[in-house]
Amino acid sequence: xxxxxxxxxxxxxxxxxxxxMSLAKLAVRLYNEFGFEIVEKALAEMEYGNVPECDEGSPxxxxxVRSRVKENLLLIPTTLRSRVLAEVERVANEVLGWIYxxxxxxxxxxxxxxxxxxxEGTIDRTKTAQExxxxxxxxxxxxxxxxxxxxxxxxxxxxxxELKANGKTEKYEEPSKxxxxxxxLPFWVRWILEGAQVPWTLxxxxxxxxxxxxxxxxxLSSSHFRVLMPGERRILLPHLGYxxxxxxxxxxxxxxxxxxxxxxx
Length: 265
Description:
By secondary structure, this protein is mainly alpha-helical. The chain is 59% helix and 0% strand. It folds into 3 domains: 16-52 and 60-103, no CATH class; 106-201, no CATH class; 208-264, no CATH class.
C-alpha cells in the first residue's frame, strides 16, 4: 500500500471494494438464513447432481430449505459460486471466533444476541456488545459481564445498580464465588466498590499495566489498548502479535502513531 507525506502511516483502516462489500453482505445473509453446511450441500448438489450422502444428518425440511438456497445461488454467476461459499465459510468461522471469545460468560445465550457486521464482513464487536447490554432478553449477569469486557462504563454502572437492587452482586463481591469471568470484570468491580472516585480511564492505567498482560494468559483488546499511556503502549508494541486476537490487533494498529507503527512493522 502506497503512503505519502511525513505523517503517513504504515497501517491505515481497510477500505473494502464494492465487490468485497457485496460479497460479504451476501455471505452474511446466506449464513444467517441457512448456515454454512446447508449452503455447502446445496451447492454440491447443483454442481454434481443429487448426492445421497448430502441428505445424511440433514433436518426433515432440508429439501425445502435446499430449494430456497438454490434459488439464491442461481442468481450468482457460476464462476463466483465457489467464492461465495468460501465467504460464507469465513463468516461461519467469524461467528465461531466470536462465541469462543465469550466462553467465560456462563449465562450468555448466543441465540438471543444480534451480531452487527462491518461492511468488509467482520463482526463489529463493540457495537454488538452495546446492543447485548441493552437487550432485556439476555440474562442481566451476562449483560453486566459483557459491559465489563468491553469497557462500556455507563452500562457497567447501570447494570451494577440493577444487580445490586436485585441482590445479585454477591458473587462478584467475593472473587472465590466468581469462577471463570471476563478479564476486565475484577477491575470494574473493584472500581465500583471503591466508589468510582476517579475516572475509570485513570484507574485503568494502574490495572492495565503491561506486566499484567506479559506475565499472564490475558489477551489485549482494542478497548484496553486505547486507555494505556504512550509509554505503556510502547512496552507492549513488540508483543501485539500474540497478545491480540486478529480483529483487535487490526484496531490496535489503527490507533498507533506513525512512530509506533514503525517499531511494530
